[in-house]
Design brief:
37 helices, 35 strands, disordered N terminus, eight-stranded mixed β-sheet, 1104 residues, seven-stranded antiparallel β-sheet, alpha/beta
């Protein structure tokens, strides 16, 4: 490393913009000629290429090659490392200190910058690449103070981060750079100054935390730079170019900003090692919005990671009850220097990590792994192997204590005694005896030693335990009287198993406007995640006596004066430690921080210091440490909550949807559902309009007010928080502005202490008409508007709307009132459905015929498709099946045809009780059980239909029930059914109406009282012809036709799509029907009139 450092320095002159051969550096004592300079350049390029922050060195090589000559390259092999090493002393010149050499290497980087354009913006990257060499130079060659550091110290964070790629600003979350770009584009960073607070939300099994990592954060912020590679990568990820306008979403100026980025902010922090509790600020960052945002994911990991390590280590040290603890988890975690340092600060006597020991002057411990014994096995048995291995190791490191249990604990103890004799310094146990606890194992090992005359303990042979040790195991061993004199704790300190992290968060707490000094307090308000506004100070109260216990903490505003209550003394913990991007306080040594932690732990209450013996019991259930907020801070937080309208200040959000709903459709329902979810509406009030206030003449509705209200109730019944209001249909109000006043008054009463926030909901087409409404402009600016986008719409609010309202444009879809409490927004979610009441009404009006299908049930049909004939199968039913199927298919495919079908649907009560239906009993027709409700579809005795007529999907079939079996089993009760609520389905040709018939006289579908209501709604003017088909001609078909004819309808029977029970009675039936005005047609005539449709099926085969 020293050789490389001097070779780097040797190209200072070479790297000048205008250099010649005579400028090449020569050492005062030993010449370092062109060959060394070329070697340096080659080495730099090699190192850069192997780095993840590669910067091409080809330009340097080319510049060096010309004056030296390629023919001399082979002479590099003749360079003497000894000669070059001797030049180190002259170049470094220890007598003058390292400051001068540090300056020289820095100067070299500056000259490199001027050499060629590729280096023009990469001085900092080059600095970063040279930093490890510089650090080693500073550390290894001088004890003189450098740049304010103490003897032996150097920028250890830079050193480590360079190796682990943690220093890179790209070790970050993409969203931080996206937000930074947004702040740049908006210009917010020029006029805003922000504060972020870093604190822990706490963990249930950690009643306190030991804060660490703050100094690492400061070093990182002081040295943070973007290389050109960093900038180019971010440009690829952040910048897009519009293919038409060629506009860039993020301008190039933002990336120029990153090239010269330096953190210029301020950091306040508590001292390293301070005990902290949930919600207390550990570190606060002041700066412009860009720099404070960019560093979020760079700041959190250090404090989060080291606090987690340190807290675990403090608990392990506490549970050791005075027994020394060393950290040995480097191989178990990815951040050995950090876990080793954190453990030391928390009270461990040392670490196995050599870098921690080197950098922080911490004691380092280590013996040997079990592999040492394996490499000495050869042809020996375990006894000779252990003896050989221990003798070889002790000759090199007499004070080390290799593990004594590679081949068994007792065997290892005996081998150690034989190998070391009286010089045995100690034993390390890394396992337990079979069937024994660690405590029992330690006592057995100690007894063997005592039996041989050894003194066991710290003054004699010390036993170290290192197998799966954590604070819970230590507590068990303490309880069970283990003979242990030190602990080596590994994985549980480097990767704590009971706490994945310290739950640190970094939250924006204050925004200051530099132009006018205005302050905004942003604050997160979510369950368990409530923050606090402003810049803060943390005061710790101690009992006012020597070594007075920690009593409680108080969080105040940063500039707030605080006086401790009588009997207590208050200590402010946060102090400004980084100013304008540079350290502003002296560094604290690791030893001082360690002593600080040790002083604090005993000041905790005894309850907070309790550690259980099982990890399952680690959840803290005792009295938590008291953390108060000053009245001034609480008042500020309360004002912020009120401004944000959260918590108890949350408004009662009401959406009001005006519409004719003539009829209601799935688009209305989807808009209500989406608006309620997207805007968090507590209530949606749907107001069916009376006469439209936008029209000078009264509007004529397809459905009356009662029907529209009933249909809305049906359509919205599954959406919570929705109600239908009759303010307009009842005539109390006519205009929307008046209705809103009534509804707002109702909401005020319903919301109790919460202020109602009223919004009007409507479709995109609504906005064009609002201006024509009564006091429409007032309505537009008095309430928020939720406007649902429709397919085919522009997907943006009309530009003139912002001018008309005076609202500020946030985006083409969002306008906000000057007061900031009302918006007009275009809701554009995938869940919205475009539909039109006008189109539905046109579809309903287009119905030219009604197909009335009578009892196409398996119970009345001859066997088909493997299903037996029904108990009342009608002869000839199988022959008419193709025509029935063709008619049904035609109706399904045509909006000109409405289908009304009927079906018998009987109950067990009718079979048991003659008074309910005589046709099942000797007193009547004495038919067998048929069309029985609840049987499988394959059972011909049930009430299921033949598959040829089941062409409408289930969600497009409106079943009109008749009667259910009563609770007493001997009665039939009419099933409630609101015809008005289904008025739209009754008229819709895409919905089949299926009317059930139950009880006595079920041969006539008018026995169901809804039948007549349905036909009156469907064909009020009797202008639509009705075509009847099905079975049986002499029973249900006849009565259906007669009932319809008597009600004044035009009735046609499709004679080749019906079949009779008694064919001999058909002639008489035809005469009776003709006398009632019923006419007869054939299937072919109907198909020809309404559209050709071939029969779907050939006749099936009758089953016996």
């Amino acid at each position: 490393m020293k050789l490389f450092a001097v070779l780097i320095a040797s190209i200072i002159s070479l790297a000048s913009p205008a250099w010649s051969e005579e400028h090449i550096t020569r050492s005062p004592s030993t010449e370092i000629d062109n060959f060394e300079n070329l070697y340096v350049l080659t080495e730099i390029d090699h190192r850069w290429r192997s780095s993840d922050r590669y910067i091409p060195g080809a330009v340097l090589l080319e510049q060096a090659w010309r004056p030296i000559g390629p023919a001399l390259l082979h002479q590099l092999a003749d360079m003497s490392p000894e000669e070059l090493s001797s030049a180190v002393l002259d170049l470094v010149n220890v007598n003058k200190g390292v400051a001068e050499n540090l300056f020289k290497i820095r100067q070299m980087a500056r000259r490199l910058r001027a050499l060629e354009a590729p280096f023009a913006t990469d001085q900092d990257a080059i600095d970063g690449l040279l930093q490890p060499e510089l650090n080693d130079l500073v550390r290894g060659l001088s004890d003189a103070p450098v740049a304010g550091r103490r003897p032996g110290e150097f920028n250890y964070v830079t050193h480590l981060m360079q190796r682990a790629a943690l220093r890179s600003p790209l070790n970050n979350d993409l969203y931080n750079f996206r937000m930074a770009a947004g702040h740049f584009v908006s210009g917010a960073y020029l006029d805003h100054h922000v504060t972020y607070s870093l604190f822990s939300r706490g963990r249930s099994n950690r009643p306190f935390l030991v804060s660490m990592g703050q100094e690492q954060v400061l070093d990182m912020l002081e040295n943070l730079r973007f290389s050109e590679n960093d900038v180019q990568y971010l440009k690829k990820k952040l910048q897009t170019i519009d293919p038409i306008t060629r506009e860039k979403n993020v301008p190039d100026a933002f990336f120029d900003y990153l090239r010269t980025f330096r953190f210029k902010g301020r950091v306040r922090m508590v001292p390293v090692g301070t005990l902290i509790f949930p919600g207390e600020p550990i570190l606060e960052v002041d700066g412009d919005p860009i720099e404070a945002q960019i560093v979020e994911t760079l700041v959190i990991p250090y404090v989060n990671m080291m606090t987690n390590f340190g807290t675990k280590a403090a608990r392990v040290v506490m549970a050791a009850h005075g027994i020394p603890v060393a950290e040995g988890g480097t191989r178990r975690g990815a951040a050995g220097i950090f876990s080793g340092l954190a453990a030391y600060l928390a009270g461990a006597v040392g670490t196995s990590n050599t870098e921690t020991g080197s950098v922080f002057d911490v004691s380092v411990y280590g013996s040997a792994a079990h592999a040492w014994f394996g490499l000495h096995e050869g042809d020996y048995n375990q006894e000779i192997t252990q003896l050989t291995a221990l003798l070889a190791y002790s000759q090199l490191f007499p004070s080390a204590t290799p593990p004594a249990d590679t081949y068994g604990v007792e065997e290892g103890v005996r081998a150690a005694v034989r190998a070391r004799g009286r010089d045995l310094p100690g034993l390390r146990l890394d396992s337990a005896l079979p069937g024994k606890t660690k405590s029992e194992t330690s006592r057995i090992a100690a007894q063997i030693l005592r039996d041989l005359g050894y003194e066991v303990g710290r003054g004699g042979v010390a036993i170290t335990y290192s197998d799966g040790i954590d604070e819970y195991e230590e507590q068990r061993m303490h309880r069970d009287g283990a003979e242990v004199h030190s602990f080596l704790v590994g994985g549980e300190l480097a990767a704590p198993g009971d706490s994945g992290n310290a739950n640190m968060v970094y939250k924006l707490t204050e925004v200051r406007h530099l132009s006018d000094g205005a302050i905004i307090d942003p604050m997160k308000f979510a369950p368990g995640k409530v923050g606090e506004p402003g810049r803060k100070q943390l005061w710790r109260l101690f009992e006012d006596r020597e070594n007075g216990a920690m009593a409680r903490d108080v969080i105040t505003e940063w500039d707030e004066a605080y006086t401790a209550p009588e009997g207590f003394r208050a200590v402010p913990l946060l102090r400004t430690s980084l100013e304008n991007g540079h350290w502003s306080v002296p560094r604290v040594s690791a030893q001082e921080s360690r002593a600080y932690v040790a002083r604090q732990i005993p000041l905790l209450s005894a309850e907070l210091q309790v550690i259980p013996t099982r990890v399952e019991d680690a959840r803290y259930v005792g009295t938590p440490y008291t953390v108060e907020r000053s009245p001034r801070l609480r008042a500020r937080a309360a004002a912020t909550v009120a401004r944000l309208e959260v918590g108890e200040h949350a408004p009662y959000r009401v959406g009001v949807y005006f519409g004719s709903f003539d009829p209601v459709h799935e688009g209305h329902v989807a808009l209500i559902r989406n608006a309620r979810i997207a805007y968090g509406l507590d209530e949606v009030i749907v107001v069916p309009t009376g006469d439209s206030p936008a029209l000078s003449r009264e509007k004529h509705y397809r459905f009356n007010a009662s029907e529209r209200t009933a249909m809305l109730q049906r359509a919205l019944r599954h959406i919570p928080g929705v109600r239908i209001h009759d303010t307009q249909t009842s005539g109390r109000t006519r205009f929307a502005i008046d209705s809103m006043a009534e509804l707002e008054a109702e909401a005020t009463r319903a919301a109790d202490s919460h202020k109602p926030r009223m919004s009007i909901i409507g479709g995109e087409d609504l906005m064009a008409d609002v201006g024509t409404w009564h006091r429409g402009s007032e309505l537009l600016t008095s309430y928020s508007w939720i406007v649902g986008r429709r397919d085919g719409g522009e997907g943006r609010l009309a530009p003139a709307l912002a001018t008309a309202t005076g609202y500020r444009v946030l985006s083409p879809r969002h306008l906000v009132a000057p007061e900031g409490n009302r918006t007009i927004e275009l809701l554009d979610t995938p869940g919205l459905i475009s539909a039109s009441s006008t189109a539905l009404r046109a579809r309903y009006a287009g119905v030219q015929a009604i197909f009335h299908e009578v009892d196409a049930l398996k119970t009345f049909w001859q066997g088909m498709h493997g299903v037996a004939s029904g108990p009342l199968a009608v002869a000839g039913s199988i022959e008419i099946t193709p025509n029935v199927a063709a008619l049904k298919r035609l109706a399904f495919e045509s909006d000109a045809i409405k289908v009304v079908a009927t079906k018998d649907s009987h109950t067990g009560a009718e079979v048991r009780n003659a008074h309910l239906n005589s046709e099942f009993h000797p007193t009547g027709a004495h038919f067998p059980a048929h069309a029985m409700r609840g049987l499988p579809a394959t059972d011909p005795q049930g009430d299921s239909r033949i598959p040829e007529v089941e062409v409408f999907p289930a969600n497009r079939i409106l079943t009109v029930p008749h009667m259910n079996e009563g609770a007493d089993g001997a009665s039939l009760d009419l099933v409630p059914f609101d015809v008005q609520a289904h008025a739209d389905q009754i008229l819709d040709p895409r919905t089949e109406v299926l009317i059930e018939k139950t009880g006595e006289a079920s041969y006539d579908f008018f026995v169901n009282p809804r039948s007549e209501q349905i036909y009156d709604r469907l064909n009020p003017h009797r202008s639509i012809p009705i075509y009847v088909y099905g079975v049986a001609t002499d029973f249900c078909v006849k009565f259906a036709a007669l009932s319809l004819a008597r009600a004044g309808h035009q009735v046609f029977i499709i004679e080749d799509a019906i079949a009779a029970v008694f064919p001999q009675n058909v002639a008489a039936v035809r005469e009776e029907l003709a006398a009632a005005g019923v006419r007869f047609v054939r299937t072919a005539d109907v198909l020809a009139q309404f559209g050709q449709c071939k029969p779907l099926l050939e006749p099936g085969v009758s089953q016996p």
